[in-house]
Write a structure and sequence with these properties.
single chain, about 500 residues, Pectate Lyase C-like, 28-stranded parallel sheet, elongated, Pectin_lyas_fold, PbH1, signal
Length: about 500
């Protein structure tokens, strides 16, 4: 009470100071006020002080205090320098974060949350917007569907209910398919169409999610969309595809883990693994720092201009029929695979055109297979890789010419790879032979990849005889190089053969 009285006294003194200051600045001398005018001014001052006192008492007391009848109700007509807005003037902004439990989703995973999750997604997709991204794609301004760290059971795909939306994130929890989930469905489904040839979605992010398909379909499906981000996701128990990207371009998959079965290698059921972890049926996509620990195929690629870096595939061993990365597009591959780890599973490329494989590590007899479909291999670089095997004579690069031989081989560089316990194969071979005679043959079949194909030869013949014999290249058939001289001399012949270039650079 003493504190309230002190505050009230201070307010009264302050009010008196303000009134005196305001009226003291008047140009009228005090002596000129008449008795009645002075009395009126004093009444107004007292009323103003009383109003301040009442206001202070109301703010300190939980119950309202009625104004005293001895004070005049009219306040002094002074403008407030900074009026506070009334409650009716404040505007509450619409939320951009949609918490799924607010819609009735069960974070314990005991009951079905499909409808609640779809409702939250619908509100997010139909929420406030900020113009457009690509033409026709509504910019949602960074709206978020927050799973709040819960586990949610769903009985059908969470298919985006409307198309033509962008700048949205779904993050922070676990989605698990129920036992009734459709076997061809995907937990998260960006397949809604906007009815035109334009992109369906742009800049949608899936982050910090665990997706458990419960052996009832796939994880994420992205159809005809642009700049989609999948980051820090753990996708398991799929039977079709962990991630399917069809059409569109620029889907970036980063820092994620995928496997049909949760294992860390050496699984007794590995030979029975099936499904595909990542299926890219579009262009300009990127997979970076991703681990694929179980599936028949790690990454299936049927679109151009994709890049892979920091990928670790130990999905299913080659000896069991597994493939780490399968480039199933003939004629225009345009794919780069760098700084990756192919662990007991390799790379298959059909009729590769513009393919770069570099700075990778292949373990456990894993190798690169070039598969002929129409007999074309062009613009392929396989360089600076490391291979480690079981000393069983497995070649680091192999050809599958079941459908016909490679007939169009150009600009192919397979060189500078190193191997332990495996056999090096290359398109550039070097050999040396010594002898005393007029004919020298160097067999390069143990190194050269393509049978009976040498396009360019460089050779030197050196002898310590005083004479200068005439010599020439006589034959290069069956990957054997024949050099002959006009006279018999003791000589050393050094040869460099190139299979891959149609012209000298």
């Amino acid at each position: 009470m003493e504190r309230r009285a002190l505050v009230s006294s201070m307010i009264v003194v302050l009010a008196s100071f303000i009134i005196i200051q305001v009226y003291g600045e008047n140009s009228w001398p005090v002596a000129r006020f008449s008795g009645g005018r002075y009395h009126d001014q004093m009444q107004k001052m007292e009323a103003y002080k009383a109003s301040l006192l009442r206001r202070d008492l109301i703010s300190l007391s939980p119950s309202p205090i009625s104004p005293s009848s001895s004070f005049a109700p009219s306040p002094l007509p002074l403008p407030s320098p900074s009026p506070s807005p009334s409650p009716s003037q404040s505007v509450t902004p619409s939320p951009r974060v949609y918490h799924v439990t607010s819609y009735g989703a069960d974070p314990s995973g005991q009951t079905d949350s499909t409808e609640a999750l779809l409702a939250a997604m619908s509100d997010a997709l139909n929420g406030p917007s900020n113009g457009f991204l690509m033409e026709g794609i509504v910019n949602l301004g960074g709206a978020q569907v927050n799973l709040e760290g819960g586990t949610y059971i769903i009985n059908r795909p969470l298919r985006f209910p409307v198309a033509s939306r962008g700048n949205l994130m779904i993050h922070g929890g676990t989605l698990k398919a129920s036992n009734n989930f459709p076997t061809e469905g995907y937990l998260l489904d960006l397949s809604a169409t906007n009815g035109s040839d334009e992109y369906n979605y742009e800049y949608v992010s899936f982050r910090d999610l665990m997706l458990d398909s419960n052996y009832k379909g796939g994880g994420i499906q992205i159809i005809n969309s642009l700049r989609i981000s999948i980051d820090n996701c753990y996708i398991v128990h799929f039977t079709t595809n962990g991630i399917l990207v069809q059409g569109g371009h620029e889907t970036y998959i980063r820092n994620s883990f995928l496997g049909q079965h949760i294992t860390a290698g050496g699984d007794l059921g590995e030979r029975n693994f099936f499904g595909t972890a990542i299926n890219l049926m579009g262009n300009d996509n990127s997979v970076t720092d991703v681990v694929i620990f179980s599936a028949a195929i790690g990454i299936m690629v049927s679109g151009q201009a994709n890049t892979f870096s920091g990928v670790h595939c130990y999905n299913k061993a080659t000896n069991f029929g597994g493939i780490g990365i399968y480039l199933k597009l003939q004629g225009l591959t345009q794919t780069r695979i760098v700084n990756s780890y192919l662990d007991y599973t390799g790379i298959v490329a059909e009729d590769p055109v513009q393919l770069h494989i570099s700075s990778n590590f292949f373990l456990g007899d894993a190798y690169i297979l070039l598969k002929s479909i129409n007999g074309v291999v062009n613009g392929v670089n396989i360089v600076d890789n490391m291979f480690y095997g079981s000393y069983k004579g497995v070649e680091i690069v192999q050809l599958d010419q079941t459908n016909g031989a490679f007939k169009k081989v150009d600009q192919v560089v397979i060189d500078r790879n190193n191997a332990r316990g495996m056999e090096v194969k290359a398109t550039v071979a070097r050999g040396t032979v010594q002898g005393n005679g007029s004919s020298w043959t160097i067999d390069l079949n143990s190194i050269l990849l393509f049978p009976d194909l040498i396009k360019h030869i460089l050779y030197t013949l050196s002898t310590n005889r005083g004479s200068f014999p005439r010599h020439s290249l006589r034959n290069v058939s069956m990957n054997r190089v024949l050099i002959e001289s006009d006279v018999a001399v003791p000589a050393t012949v050094f040869v460099v053969a190139d299979q891959g270039k149609s012209h000298l650079s």
